[in-house]
Write a structure and sequence with these properties.
The complex is a heterodimer. By secondary structure, chain A is an alpha/beta fold. In chain A, the strands form 4 sheets. A 6-stranded mixed β-sheet of chain A has the order 3-2-1-4-5-16, sandwiched between helices. A 6-stranded mixed β-sheet of chain A has the order 8-13-12-9-10-11, sandwiched between helices. A two-stranded antiparallel sheet of chain A has the order 6-15. In chain A, α3 packs parallel to α4. In chain B, 48% of the residues lie in helices and 10% in strands. Chain B contains 19 helices and 10 strands. In chain B, α9 crosses α13, α11 packs across α12 and α16 crosses α19. Chain B is globular. The relative contact order of chain B is 0.10. Classes of the chains: A alpha/beta, B alpha/beta. Chains A and B meet through α3, β7, β8 and α5 of A and α4 and α6 of B.
Chain lengths: 302, 572
């Protein structure tokens, strides 16, 4: 059991949103719950507060969710910045529940929590299973560089694109069309969880019709201690100073933490996000409480 | 296996020699590029914009290097600027929440990009400047940057390093954690680019040098940068420099400047449409297509004409010849012998429609083959021309792995198979939803796009098979009765279809009243899966906006059996 002054989470509709918070409350001592809700999805999100307010460990001081827009992410940035600043988090223990957070929000919060010098831990609850193919996401929008973590880029350099991929391939095409990279490195999941050997990008690369010379693969374990940081860094470091390097997280979310750490270590490497406006209702099912991923954001090993 | 002569890689991935080898002149465009006019080149992906710019850049460089005529009038110094770089995707300026600062920082990155490209261009043409002038140039540049260039290298290499350092410094500043971090030492067009251009002019060994900034894929600039670029285009004095700007037609490219004015076609710039309309073998694109294929075959050592390399199915040719006789007989029964033009028009309109109409229902789909078919399937876009050729060649070459024989022609079954499979893929893509790869397209909009094409092609097929239809093979349409509230709903769907390269749009004039209107052509590859004729005819179907919207919502487009006033013939 740990003590946290705050836990930050994002409102969602998946089973593990509510059950994750419930589990966090039951197993840790939480001062206050800070919910963030994405306005584009708020109508389908579970009202966690009304479900949990009778929980004996629910902090009664909890306020309504902070509503932000994914579309106007620069305004979301300012709102989140103002929220974090108002809490005076220097040295305070904080838990970041990334389970149902879109990646841009993970990175925004990581940015401000790092800036505020909070003692930030993160937690991720795996589902029992993921949906198949078309149920994942639709309505992808134009890929975006992450504010303040967009890298140091040059117009006379070619681009290397690292895509930490999962089973959702629609967004991969968007990325490649937008940035026209010379090289694409897929960091794909190892292991056979969720039928990974059939569903991962390496075994489905023919669907994309890409030039084989353009593409390479590295296998990572998003659920290991470093979430693939070392492997990804090794695959990219040779390009530093010669190429524009962009990194996108589309697979399991703990690797978004790895990419954030890599951007901190090598600010020249930029982070990219693809807003999606429609998630399948059956994006995932259940919650796996036997294999919870957690860690400390400021991992000095990196 | 032999190398496929029909590779259609993006032009920016090709070497100079590859560009020179494969580029085929379009007879009009180069004279616009190599001029002092500001020019917009409009065209979708694959229409050849980048290839056009890069080819002309190489030719202009060669001219500069080889000439001894220091007084030559047309001494063009090309500066190629790709706007599709990740730098242009940076969005930190949005955090400034101050229009002025947002514009200033946006201009700064655009100016840095253009400056770096200008310096790279100078390094590619080293003889343009005499070595003896380099010290004076360095002095002028030091004055311009209010600093001293560092290092021991050539002045332009030092300037290149300086600009690269500026990129680094600016980005580090705007990336710094404070939300409103702003870089104070920004550069502007008037304060930096114009003085640089004047330095080039002053020291160039060619006295009348004119700098051409080739801004490629300018639609990828942010809205400030586009407005700023428009302001540069509006610069009154075109003697020193001009702009050649390529942009996608399907984007709403605004011609306003930052100050709220606008640049005007004809006055400030001229436009070139890279997507070519064509309807017969004599049209420019047909000639261009044949030249491109011929050149590719010659480079591959295949000494065969394009027509023989892509032969038409002999049975289909024979059947069409029979239908021509039928059409001729019908025309002669309908018109007196003196009406030779009417007879010829009738034969032109109805020969192929008789073929498609009278085919047995039990017959297999038509054997889509032949250079003419492939050219028409491209719908006037070069990449659409090369892609099926590439796949066909690959198919033939793969079939002969064990006996490595040269590919001397593409058999008609292979042509038909490839074309048919491509058409099926396009329809599958439509059915799956174009939202999967067009940004800012919702699932609902993707469904509307699918509905539109389903109902449009149903209409075109009904017309093709209708004996009484006056223009049975028309595959272009225009929109009439364009009420604003309807067009507000229609336009976004059409724009998505254009971005997805399912629909092409060109400007034409209504023969009846001369009004300039948009003419739309579905990507002709779509017609194949519906068993229709991709070789359309020189005519346009006029469809009311309410029926277009209805089609998008899943309703059939009404069609009357007998021709009505709605059907118009357009000449482009």
């Amino acid at each position: 059991m740990n003590n946290y002054d705050y836990v930050f989470y994002c409102s969602g509709w998946e089973d593990r949103c509510l059950k994750g918070i419930e589990h966090t409350l039951s197993t840790h001592c939480i001062g206050e719950v800070k919910a963030i809700s994405i306005s584009e999805f708020s109508d389908k999100c579970i009202d966690v507060t009304s479900k949990l307010k009778k929980h004996d460990k629910w902090p009664q001081s909890t306020e309504a969710p902070l509503l932000i827009s994914m579309e106007e992410d620069f305004k979301a940035w300012k709102k989140i910045g103002a929220l974090i600043e108002s809490l005076d988090l220097k040295g305070k223990p904080v838990l970041l529940d990334i389970t149902t957070m879109p990646r841009f929000l993970i990175w925004f919060l990581c940015h401000f929590l790092e800036k505020s010098d909070a003692n930030t831990h993160y937690i991720y609850y795996k589902p029992l299973d993921y949906a198949d193919g078309p149920s994942f996401t639709t309505d992808p929008r134009e890929p975006r560089l992450i504010l303040k973590h967009s890298g140091i880029l040059y117009p006379d350099r070619r681009t290397v694109l690292l895509i930490q991929s999962g089973f959702d391939f629609d967004r991969v095409d968007q990325l490649i069309k937008k940035f026209e990279p010379e090289k694409v490195i897929f960091a794909y999941p190892q292991g056979n969880q969720f039928e990974n050997d059939k569903r991962n990008v390496r075994n489905n690369i023919d669907k994309f019709g890409y030039n084989e010379e353009q593409i390479s693969f590295v296998e990572i374990d998003s659920f290991s201690g470093d979430h693939g940081f070392k492997t990804i860094k090794e695959s990219l470091v040779a390009f530093k100073g010669e190429y524009n390097v962009l990194m996108c997280s589309l697979g399991p979310k703990p690797s978004a933490i790895a990419l954030f750490r890599l951007n901190l270590a090598i600010p020249e490497f930029g982070l990219v996000y693809i807003p999606v406006y429609s998630y399948g209702d059956r994006y995932s099912t259940g919650i796996n409480l036997d294999d919870i991923v957690c860690g400390v954001l400021k991992n000095e090993g990196h | 296996m032999s190398i496929n002569p029909f590779t259609f890689s993006g032009a920016s991935n090709l070497t100079d020699n590859q560009i020179l080898d494969t580029f085929v002149h379009d007879y009009n465009h180069s004279r616009f590029i190599q001029s002092k006019r500001n020019v917009f080149l409009w065209g979708e992906r694959g229409s050849g914009k980048t290839m056009m710019l890069l080819y002309n850049k190489i030719k202009m460089q060669q001219c500069l290097i080889s000439t001894d005529d220091v007084e030559m009038d047309a001494a063009y110094f090309p500066v190629y600027v790709s706007c599709i770089t990740p730098v242009m995707s940076k969005r930190e300026y949005l955090l400034l929440e101050n229009d002025f600062k947002e514009a200033v920082i946006s201009e700064h990155f655009l100016v840095l990009t253009v400056s770096l490209s200008l310096v790279s261009a100078l390094l590619e043409v080293p003889d343009l400047i005499d070595d003896g002038d380099l010290e004076d140039i360095e002095e002028d540049i030091n004055y311009l940057i209010d600093d001293v260039l560092e290092g021991k290298r050539n002045v332009f290499e030092k300037l290149q390093n300086h600009l690269t350092r500026e990129f680094t410094r600016s980005q580090k500043e705007i990336n710094s954690p404070s939300s409103d971090s702003f870089y104070e030492n920004t550069l502007g067009f008037s304060s930096f680019i114009i003085p640089l251009v004047r330095i080039v002019n002053k020291y160039s060994r060619l006295k009348k040098i004119h700098t051409i900034f080739m801004m490629d894929d300018a639609h990828d600039l942010n809205h400030y940068q586009r407005a700023i670029l428009n302001g540069w285009i509006a610069y009154r004095d075109n003697s020193l420099f001009s702009f050649k700007i390529s942009a996608a037609k399907s984007t709403d490219y605004n011609h306003c400047t930052l100050s709220g004015g606008a640049i005007l076609e004809g006055h400030d710039y001229v436009s070139m449409d890279m997507e070519q309309d064509f309807q017969n073998a004599e049209a420019n694109f047909s000639k261009l297509a044949k030249h491109i294929i011929q050149k590719r075959l010659t480079l591959a050592g295949i000494n065969i004409t394009p027509e023989d390399f892509f032969p038409e199915d002999p049975k289909m040719s024979a059947d069409i010849a029979k239908c021509k006789k039928i059409a001729t007989k019908q025309a002669k029964e309908k018109f007196p012998p003196s009406e030779t033009k009417k007879i010829a028009d009738y034969v032109y309109k109805y020969t192929r429609s008789i073929y498609f109409r009278t085919r047995s229902r039990k017959a297999n789909k038509p054997q889509y083959s032949g250079l003419e078919t492939i050219t028409h399937l491209s719908t006037g876009v070069i990449r659409n021309l090369l892609e099926p050729c590439f796949v066909m060649y690959d198919e033939m070459a793969s079939a002969s792995k064990e006996k490595p024989l040269p590919v001397n022609k593409i058999t008609t079954p292979v042509q038909t198979k490839v074309i048919t499979n491509m058409s099926k893929r396009y329809w599958e893509h439509l059915k799956d939803g174009v939202d999967r790869d067009i940004s800012d397209c919702t699932k609902e909009q993707a469904n509307m796009v699918h509905n539109l094409f389903t109902n449009l092609l149903t209409l075109m097929r009904v017309r093709l098979l209708d004996e009484s239809c006056s223009e049975p093979r028309a595959v272009k349409f225009s929109i009439s009765a364009r009420q604003e509230e309807l067009m507000t709903q229609i336009k976004p769907i059409l724009d998505i279809a254009r971005k997805a390269q399912l629909l092409y749009r060109r400007l034409g004039s209504d023969k009846d009243d001369g009004e300039q209107i948009f003419l739309y052509t579905p990507n002709r590859i779509l017609l194949v899966a519906r068993g229709m004729d991709p070789i359309g005819q020189h005519a346009t179907i006029s469809i009311q906006a309410k029926y277009i919207l209805g089609a998008m919502e899943g309703k059939e487009i009404p069609y009357k059996e007998k021709p009505t006033n709605q059907m118009s013939i357009f000449n482009e």
